[in-house]
Amino acid sequence: MKRPLKVFIIAGEPSGDKLGGNLMTGLQTLTEGAVEFQGIGGEMMQAAGLKSLFPMSDLSIMGLFEVIPAIPKLKKRIKQTTEAAIAMDADVFITIDSPDFCLRVGKKLRAAKPEQYSIHYVAPSVWAWRPERATKMAKTVNHVLALLPFEPLFMEREGMSCDFVGHPAVNESRPDASEIDAVLGEIGLSSDDNIICVLPGSRKSEIKRLLPIYMDAIKDILKSNPDTKFVLPAARSVLELINDQLACTDLPITVLDPSSHDPLVAEQRKRAIYAASQLAIATSGTIALDLAKQRCPMVIAYRASWMTERAVKRLAQTDRANLINIITDSYVVPELLFNKCTPQAVATSVLELLNDSDIRDSQISACNNAMKQLGEGHENPGLRSALSVLNAIKINQSGA
In sequence order, what are the beta bridge partners of 42? Predict the structure, then answer.
């Protein structure tokens, strides 16, 4: 009987959890189920068969300085994870994004097991800021799975092998009218309503900083568009915090609650809201690709601590943060970052999109372009990433 492939895999936030779930499913398909997983992940990876060592939310901390208060807990989790990875003696150690945690575990694992083969999923955006990260990563990572087509060159320059595998968003389904109507009907809305999707993020720090800004912006939007409805598809990990913040307002914001649905159904419901919306107000991140897949125009915003913002501005290599803008080499998506992220600026950008069909059409065209570049219509990125992993392991074991 063939020995199962042993995989230790880590994701630290919801976007990585989605990538991990797709990768795990791809590995199960290509190995015909002969694969064993251990590690850390969220609901998508758990649905694919992972029993997480501890809640993934323990690692969902964003910002250079926001992480400081959590250092003692993170050190404990690093030690726990490293010990579990050593004990498993896996064929491959896979980390997904979250480099501040993942690469620290990788460094300790490499020190204990110098022969451990290591793969990192999501190339660090060295073209955007902190280019030295690739050099640092190469000390503990053998192979990289890249989401963007131009990233392999940056990784290969540092001695790592790298494959462009695309992003799972490109192969996600686009809901039809009946699916959209069903989800809208469940929350008391219809396709005749003017809907704006509100996406404040999946981390507690993002909800605390950005949701109040979005709520104030919504007040301004309603002054000129009083019939607009707002839907907030909540991440399970921050649902309670979102409800607490909305409890003190009478704004027409409906929360799309994922808690009574399994992860895959919850994702399908979110996609129906993206497709039904005229546009989205979204916190900067890979959510841009999910919105682009549904051809939903967007306004992107972000705030962090003063120290984090200052550091990012100093280290940035590009003046763009939104993936659609970066992939299409454009500025079509409004980016309201740091001190530009105010309720007034958000409301102004939203109203411009609502009132100008040419601007909306330009965004939709850019979304089409970005999806094409990321491999829409080609092989599923979950299978592409799994194939890349298996090929990399094979090459390593053959000594090539």
Answer: none
